[in-house]
Amino acid sequence: MAKAPVKPITLKELAAMLELSQSTVSRIINGEATAHRIAEETQRRVLHAAALNGYVANTMARGLRQKRTYTIGVIVPEISEGYSTTVLSGIEDELLKDGFFYFVVSHRHRPDLLEGYPRMMLARSVEGIIAVDSPMSEDMPVPVVSISGHDRRDGVINIELDHDQAAHLALSHLKSLGHRQIAFIKGQEFSSDTKLRWQAIVQAASDLDLQIDDHLVVQLQSPEPGPAPGQEVTRLLLQTKRPFTAIFAFNDVTAIGAISAIREAGLRIPKDVSVLGFDDILSAATHHPPLTTIHQPLRSMGQVAATTLLSLIRDDIPHPRPEAITVYPKLVVRKSTGHLGQYSDIAPMQRESAAIESSQVESLGQ
Amino acid sequence: MAKAPVKPITLKELAAMLELSQSTVSRIINGEATAHRIAEETQRRVLHAAALNGYVANTMARGLRQKRTYTIGVIVPEISEGYSTTVLSGIEDELLKDGFFYFVVSHRHRPDLLEGYPRMMLARSVEGIIAVDSPMSEDMPVPVVSISGHDRRDGVINIELDHDQAAHLALSHLKSLGHRQIAFIKGQEFSSDTKLRWQAIVQAASDLDLQIDDHLVVQLQSPEPGPAPGQEVTRLLLQTKRPFTAIFAFNDVTAIGAISAIREAGLRIPKDVSVLGFDDILSAATHHPPLTTIHQPLRSMGQVAATTLLSLIRDDIPHPRPEAITVYPKLVVRKSTGHLGQYSDIAPMQRESAAIESSQVESLGQ
DNA sequence: TGTCACTGCGCAATCGATTGCGCTAGGACG
DNA sequence: CGTCCTAGCGCAATCGATTGCGCAGTGACA
User: Fold this and answer.
1) Are A185 and A220 in contact (CB under 8 A)?
2) What predicted TM-score, i.e. pTM, was given to this entire model?
3) Which of B60, B62, B88 to probe the A interface (max A CBs under 10 A)?
4) Confidence grade of residue A286 (pLDDT, cut at 50, 70, 90)
């Protein structure tokens, strides 16, 4: 026997049965009673009746009037495993704590959606937007926090990783293992980190006296998510027969693809080729071999983004506002990188470094 | 030179610039033009201007009038795990096509949240709820579709996998490879598939003349996501020294944990022990070795859930309504299962001492 | 010229809550 | 007795879109 879904009572009805005006009832319900000098006794009556009738304000009517919805929009490239979802879980944490809900949309790099979704979210009166690795085409009428976005734009605060440090950690690690011929897989053109990261790598290489061989630099092409694009470009790289002893991938998923391609070619990880990933997604630790990678604090980036956005919405952040909030990477040494082995086609000056890889794998709770 | 913030244009404004009334514009936009005899020419003008100005109706205002929100709620256990996110992406696909948005909340198995979130969603006037692997405590005043939920309840439609077929596929596969001593890892108590799946396994084993050795059946305990719980119980299993040649894990993540534990013990996959997963999450294919698994069409389960819910909302589904919609599994053979080797049946015994060797435990830091 | 049938579109109420003002009655005060 | 203050509330506009009616103009026809 299904319970009859009760038609919610409206403010007007409630006011009528109390023989009060809607304004008064509304004020009491919203805790603005004292500011309006409503008698204690009246407040009690109203609150009691409201509870008794299970009165809950209609969210849309309220939202329409106040232009507040306690809702924000999150736009991501893909909802799949890895990057976005870890960030999402960080966002959720903070948002729900403050009674905010969020919409998620994924644009899959389609320009029409990149344009349309923000509009649709605005039509739903979101109070702010978090863009994860997604460019925002125009200025928005609400606060925007961008994760791994690098546009300097008014009203937008970027959450970004210290790419210089990341590049330094990565290349020092490879250098200390004796690697000199290092291949690089750059991110797709559309990925907002691609350019900055590459610049950081070039700089770090120069600082560390490492040469970058242009023939060993490839770029992800296919827009599809997953390891396939990484596998694809690594195959091409191997076909050039240009020797390399290590490869620094744009992210872990790409690294996984690269590992597949390298294995296809009959080479071993890390004996013949060391592979270094980026991000430290969950499966990086459980992959075989476990991926050495540059840990990006994705979850806390989501948390920071959320708290920052909430502050912006509350207008809690004094001007001038920061353009960016920097978070820091960590090197997580696992098993996909190793000392330069003797099987490499070219083993230049095999350094018997005493620096045995003794680093503990840090247990980095995401 | 900042472009003017894209403050959404309102119907009134649009009507003003067209020198038409709001009613007329509204009717044209909503495709009720012909029913109201609006001149073709006028329609063109309006539509053009609307597109040009990126007009999108304010959802709150429309919802208030029509008493609709075009919003549904999705409740999942965790957000950063292969299962839910794949389902989510399927849900998103269908929902956005129909102009619906969705809220996501994750309860992390906390009873208070399991109770509270649905309420909060209802307060926000969601028009329906999709529960992913999450029990719904009470009758809801809106349609509910439950993925991998198995409560028979009025107003709830379940999307469920054919577990009998899944169990059959799995056990036939293992049997055909020669396995007879098969270990099983059951899901956590709170997982809604656990019970049904196990019943199906028992039945299939019986049909296939396979014995289930109770000593080889373990159950996931720890509620945390990720492979750790699987690794944990597999270690315990190995410590019992009861020989087994194959292990059927509750899901892929668990299988990955199991593989780690098995490797710790010095055993090889699939040479010494075959491992069979479940779900076919993305990383199943890229794991090393690639996981043989029972593919669950997670994405399309999400899609089906969404379209079904939309139909329910539109009241498109005639009574009596189905209690469940069944989807079907597939066996995906990769590299983690293999023929029974000749040493296999005694293998787990041989290396008993190796299990103590904890030097590799670190590889599972996370 | 009056009537009628269309064509093409507008008026204004409505959804439910919020909110800037303002109003009234009663008592204090001089 | 007139003025002022204060406590306690109510009026009515507003948010943006939808929708039941209704109305003006035009040409045809008798």
Assistant:
1) yes
2) 0.84
3) B60
4) confident
